Please model this.
Amino acid sequence: MICRAASLQDFEQIDALLVAAFGGRDEVRLMQGLRAANDLALEQIAVQQQEIVGHIAFSTVTGPDRGLALAPLSVSPSLQGQGIGSELTRQSLDLARQQGWRSVFVLGDPGYYRRFGFSLEAAKPFQSPYSGEHFMVLELVEDGLTGQKGQLSHAPIFAQLEGGE
Model:
């Protein structure tokens, strides 16, 4: 498996993967909106035998200094449970760290995301429409969130897709 940056030529295959993984087109609309608004900081894919089998995206957030939101993460349904999502996540978090990002927020299964170091407790000082028992953050640099708190805003497309705007 190779992890690499997504390119324009990959978008059609990514869209198909998102539909297969999530059973609808909301994540496709999310990705199209993030790309159109230039709100993506990082978009990576996992490739096996010329086929895109995994995808992960990170968009910018307003609030903490140099913060990102991880969404969506997807793996081909027939290949889930084989470590593709974990490897794609690890490599992408390492890349975000190398690029100088300080934190990553995610709304997801704590049982899954804790293995990468995401914390429910560390996200509590931040108010978000997603705050709650599945809202976590990972500091990419030690003390990357020290002294930071307050409102966290995701890219506008998130609220638009939820009917919030």
Remarks:
- Strands lie at 2-5, 40-48, 51-60, 67-75, 103-107, 126-127, 135-139, 150-151.
- The chain has a mean pLDDT of 94.
- Residues 37 and 113 are 27 Å apart (CA to CA).
- The longest strand covers residues 51-60.
